[in-house]
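User: Good morning. I'm curious how guanosine-5'-diphosphate would be positioned relative to this chain. Could you predict the structure with it bound?
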Amino acid sequence: MLDCATIFALATPPGVGGIAVLRLSGSKADDALRAMTGAPLPALRVATVRRLVDEAGGILDEALVLRFAEGASFTGEPMVEIHCHGGRAVVAAVHARLSRIAGLRPAEAGEFTRRALLNGRLDLAEVEALGDLLSAETERQRQFAASGVAGSVHRRAEAWRVALLDILAQVEITIDWADEDVPQELSPALDEALGRMVGELEAELSASVGLERLREGFEVAVVGAPNCGKSSFINHLAGREAAITSPHPGTTRDVIELRYDLRGLPVTFLDMAGLRATDDDVERIGVEKAMARAGAADLRLHFRTEDAMGDGAAARLWQEGDLTVWTKSDLATGPGDHCISTLDGEGVADLLTDVFERLSARVPADGVTSHARQRGSLTDCRDALCRAREGLSSAAAEIVAEDLRAALLSLGQLVGRSGVEEMLDRVFVSFCVGK
Ligand SMILES: Nc1nc2c(ncn2[C@@H]2O[C@H](COP(=O)(O)OP(=O)(O)O)[C@@H](O)[C@H]2O)c(=O)[nH]1
Ligand SMILES: [Mg+2]
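Assistant: Good morning! Here's the predicted structure, ligand included:
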């Protein structure tokens, strides 16, 4: 529920730590701090030591407190941070004390960020990136999310918006002056400008799909006949017993996941039930699950070895770009892109380098979006621009202008701001210049 109450919450993880940070946001933040400390307010943005007291003046803790002014805080509202000692009882006492102050209530999940969005401190794409940053587990995920928080989508959308406004202004002038189609002498330049933007949107759309894989994490399925060393490989990577291995074929019946930080790339290795035809119902369910999951993975490592050649079930999963791996190379070597032994680790590093390079190549260097919602707006924008482009030669200028406005609206939706008023302002300025 959104209201104008002053909200507060523990901003650091629950549990014991050196310090814990509680945040307050809203018009009563300063009043609450005054009540909590029984002392004058410290200067804005100056970390100040204050004794936190209860209603009777009893000491709760000694803390560092910080104030942020309205319009110059994360949420855009007046904010206070209380850095107290990070013990459970300390945090509980400070939290309880805040709860008893009139006009304050505990924040709901994401409420600080929601207020930041509503107050224009962050746009929607920046909010999405902030969520990604908090859930980033690897270095590459962190880098990408951090660039989003720093406004990479915002800047790209803004550049497109400015270019689109110029095109729209030229079309709008036509409507006002000529009352008819876009003039012949104007269309080639407009067509080129629109064509360029469509190309850029399409490049972003395709980059976005690869960046989504980076954000969500890649999946690499280890497939092959029972007993060819799949679980041993997963365990070797994990450095612990993550999957149950045994010399008896058919031991692994579930899909076991190992989340792995592959040189900054998030990769989940999937250990599959041995892929073979079977009469055992439970094992067959495992095999079917494994086939579906492996088929959808980003990459498959097809394990083979002398004593476990299988019945070819795994071979049906082969996709372009997959790797064949000969295992148990300490016993015998054989054909494959790689030869590994989990007994002595031979060949494993080379295999991982290859996997890294193949997945790395799917992470585009210059895209900024990675969410399906963002691609929805980009697609709408691209489609509207294509319609406008077609209309240049066949439709009335009003219709072209309408499509361009639809494209602008979609760009606004990309970052969660429609920007229609600004567009009108800009078009108006162009009219003045033109007339
Ligand atoms: N010598 C040798 N034995 C291995 C190697 N990898 C696995 N094994 C053995 O092969 C058997 C089957 O391994 P497992 O990982 O359970 O195969 P999975 O059915 O494909 O998961 C076990 O007895 C392992 O100890 C290896 O690199 N060298
Ligand atoms: Mg296994």
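The radius of gyration is 29 Å. The longest strand covers residues 59-68.
Let me know if you'd like a different ligand tried.
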